[in-house]
Amino acid sequence: LDKMYETLELLQRRHNVRPDLLLCCGDFQAVRNEADLRCMAVPAKYRHMQTFYRYYSGEKKAPVLTVFIGGNHEASNHLQELPYGGWVAPNIYYLGYAGVVRFRGVRIGGISGIFKSHDYRKGHFECPPYNQQTIRSAYHVRNIEVFKLKQLKRPIDIFMSHDWPRSIYHYGNKKQLLKMKSFFRQEVESNTLGSPAASELLQHLKPTYWFSAHLHVKFAAFMQHETNSKEELPKATKFLALDKCLPHRDFLQIIDVEHDPNAGDSLEYDAEWIAVLKATNDLVNVTQSSWNMPEKNGLHAKWDYSVTEEAIKEVLEELNHDLKIPCNFTLTAACYDPSKPQKNMEAVHTINPQTTEFCAQFGLTDINDRIQQAKEEGSGRGECEEEEEEEMDSAGSAEEPSEYNTDNSGLSSFNPDEIMLDEEGGDEDLSTCSVDPSPDHPPEFSTSFSDIRIMPDSMAVSSDDAMDSNNEELEKSGGSKQVEEKGSTERSLKRIGGDENGDSGIKKIKRRNQAIYAAEDEDK
């Protein structure tokens, strides 16, 4: 983290360029102490205290507003405190399991974690101390987060995910990608590389920019979306994946995006997103049971949870039209002290005051409080103790086959760049409690694709979701992936979300390194 901020300061001194916002696409590793290190899914040899704790303690402060999503190598116990997002340190904001915020009129969304089909339909049941299963499942994407994001109607300018949307490689220089990463070929050709959930969001949200990481390679693509009607304006997404790729260190990119000149420098809530959270609050689940999101299939009385302009107006009135996110960062754990190492410190399940305040303000369920209640009631659901319930039917029903292929954000091929996780549990320090892992099972669920564009046959996703849970694919690791955004006022035209009253605005944008998106796939 120190090196990243030092790089930005060097950029300003040498080139007089000062980014207004730093975006990170996962594996941020907000590690406060030794207990946090033990909650990070990496082999023990990679558990080294870096520099985040200095920003957490207040010794240092991030020189630029930083917004990040979670990846698959995180202090999951820390991020779990903020399921709806919040400050992990002054000037460093986590978007939560999924979230949307605004900065200077630019609408920024994101989803944390990586896709794994066997956990996709479960609730957020994990809590520290984690076992060898939950230390990984804690960062797996859940269907409820995708469902919430799909309720959004207003345009998104920037969206972030850790793993790539499946099929995005067909829209860039695929030949060059396979030249750099030849072990991707099997997954690319079978269309199993990347997240199908992220692909669904890409086609639904159609953001102007989509940033990802995870696969240890820099890659750009340009996706022209199909329109649903003659009246709909054409939309396209510029995709960019960055990663800490030694020796090239392609983890930094400067993007110029037009901002609202009348907006302040504060990070703001997004009124539509808050309204969606309120509308979907009754869907919150903290159990391990697999379940489907509501859809128009005759089984649900309600399936459309998108919000009306009136609901958005009510949120604005609740906030007195002041959308500024309060700077209410609070220390919730002891900070690492180099002079007094505590190697045996254990993680505890913590309810963060930021989350308590946020839920009280908007009438939402505090997920961690619900998990605590379940533990106290001895329900055996949503807890991390020695007798976890293992009798739930996680295989789903035969009537509802999966729309998604098996685990797919990762690769079955050997990737020399990744951190290898021992799936046999050989890393004895990976677990902080004695729970035996319950078996993983492939999910079977249905989802409606009526609102997304039809993909070419070569990109179709198989419905076969059978897998051997004892041979779970290795999950991708990524270093810090950074994308920066800089306000600008003299750019070519770009359409982004309008004001909170629903008025759309026309704004300008210029993309540096525009040529990277013009690269054509030489396979064609």
Description:
The chain is of the alpha/beta class and 524 residues long. It has one domain (1-378). 20% of the residues lie in helices and 14% in strands. The strands form two sheets. An eight-stranded mixed sheet has the order 3-4-2-1-13-11-15-14. A hairpin with a 2-residue loop joins strand 5 (98-103) and strand 6 (106-111). Helix 10 crosses helix 11 (309-318). The longest helix is centred in the first third of the chain and has 14 residues, at 2-15. The protein is globular, with a radius of gyration of 22 Å.
Short description:
This is DBR1 enzyme. The chain has helices at residues 2-15, 34-38, 52-57, 76-80, 134-137, 143-149, 174-180, 185-189, 196-205, 271-279, 309-318, 353-362, 367-376, 515-518, and strands spanning 21-24, 65-68, 86-89, 92-94, 98-103, 106-111, 158-161, 209-212, 219-225, 235-241, 254-258, 267-269, 482-488, 492-496, 505-510.
List keywords for this structure.
eight-stranded mixed beta sheet; 14 helices; 15 strands; alpha/beta; disordered C terminus; 524 residues; seven-stranded mixed beta sheet; globular
